């Protein structure tokens, strides 16, 4: 079973949306699912170095790195990186920069697609 999570929300926006999406991804990996995350819109901030505000309850970037280490594939929307002012070298190197064609291919290849 393959799961694609499209994360649009900013990681530290006062809600637990990004945190819960990463928790779901971890649980899906543990259940033996193939997990892919496509970060777009403000969701690309999950991969921005130093994105966590002072005193944040969770280190979402560390959670994302743990997911990658456990086998999750992560791609970042190139256009969204540019719009959010994230330049080369500012995003975590473990995630691959991609475009809409890559997202379309993942949607087509996934059995389940969820958007957060």
Q: What is the CATH homologous superfamily assignment of one domain?
A: DsrEFH-like
Largest sheet composition: 5 strands, parallel
How big a fraction of the residues is strand?
15-25%
The CATH topology of one domain corresponds to Hypothetical Protein Ychn, Chain: A
Low-confidence segments = none
The number of distinct β-strands equals 5
Shape summary: globular
* Radius of gyration, CA atoms, in whole angstroms: 13 Å
Number of helices: 4
Distance between the terminal alpha carbons, to the nearest Å? 19 Å
Q: Pairing-aware structural class of the strands and helices?
A: alpha/beta
Mean pLDDT: 90
The largest beta-sheet arranges its strands as: 4-3-2-1-5
Q: Could you estimate the helical fraction of the residues in percent?
A: 25-40%
Q: How would you spell out the order of helices and strands?
A: EHEHEHEHE
CATH first level of one domain: which class? Alpha Beta
Looking at the overall shape, the CATH architecture of one domain is: 3-Layer(aba) Sandwich
